[in-house]
Amino acid sequence: MEHESGAVSRAKASLIFSMLMFGTIGIFVRYIPLPSSVIALSRGLIGTAFLAVVILKKGPGISWGAIKRNLRNLCLSGAFIGINWILLFESYHYTTVATATLCYYMAPVFVTLSAPFMFKERLTQKKIFCITGALVGMVLVSGIWNTGISGTGELWGVFYGIGAAVFYASVILLNKKIQGISAYDKTMMQLAASSIVLLPYTVLTEKVSVLSLTPMAVILLAVVGILHTGISYTLYFGSMKNLEAQTIAIFSYIDPIVAILLSALFLKEPFGIRGIAGAIMVLGAALISELPDKS
């Protein structure tokens, strides 16, 4: 029991760290002079290469047997990561970042509602209360309260954002089904699959000159590929086997809150009283969800 408790604590720490890293990526990406789809493809390729080197250096190498046993779910979840990114990029083209973010972070709601059917996790009143509080908090943080939704283009942005949320939720749920494989092997295969999905999309939609990259942009791209993708996704996916899907869902809200707080702090983007209240609601919901129930 003590061993299980320690594993859960480590898994939560890994999940929180990965969410914090995901929340900081926007600051780095802002200074990389490349389209978002090219950055995403680079993330996948650099992350895959980094993890392959780590696995080969660490010891026994890539566990092809474990990969083969989980191949279907690995490829499917990796492809879903790529599709998730593509739909999110399309959402940004049609609507505001605030609206796209709000739609995208419907994913934890989908996970929470699916978990009782897929994993027999009990949907308690406390979990329902916390996920509702986190969702209301995201509405306040996003600023959509003030901007609203107008026009057909905006609706397409909403549909793309919700589509991205569906695939994000599917990635979380599928990762709960992947067993008997190291976090390194799992993440490497998923990032490779996401790169395969992103490659044709990027080639068809973007025209980029490598010569336009500055040395600083190359360094930032490497940081995004290694730290924000290779390392953070390894911790993220590695934490899932020891945590309930509902816990992962609620803690996922740490990512956008950190992103918005940092954008207000470093990029001087507006963040009013409603945003502060929303951030407190989201983080409070994550904390309350993990408090032990009374016996």
From TrEMBL:
InterPro entries the UniProt entry points to: EamA_dom, EmrE-like
Pfam families cross-referenced by the UniProt entry: EamA
Annotated Gene3D superfamilies: 1.10.3730.20
SUPFAM superfamilies linked: Multidrug resistance efflux transporter EmrE
Annotated Gene Ontology cellular component terms: membrane
Positions of the EamA domain: 15-142, 155-288
Keywords tagged on the record: Membrane, Transmembrane, Transmembrane helix
Family: Belongs to the EamA transporter family.
Protein name: EamA domain-containing membrane protein RarD
Native species: Frisingicoccus caecimuris
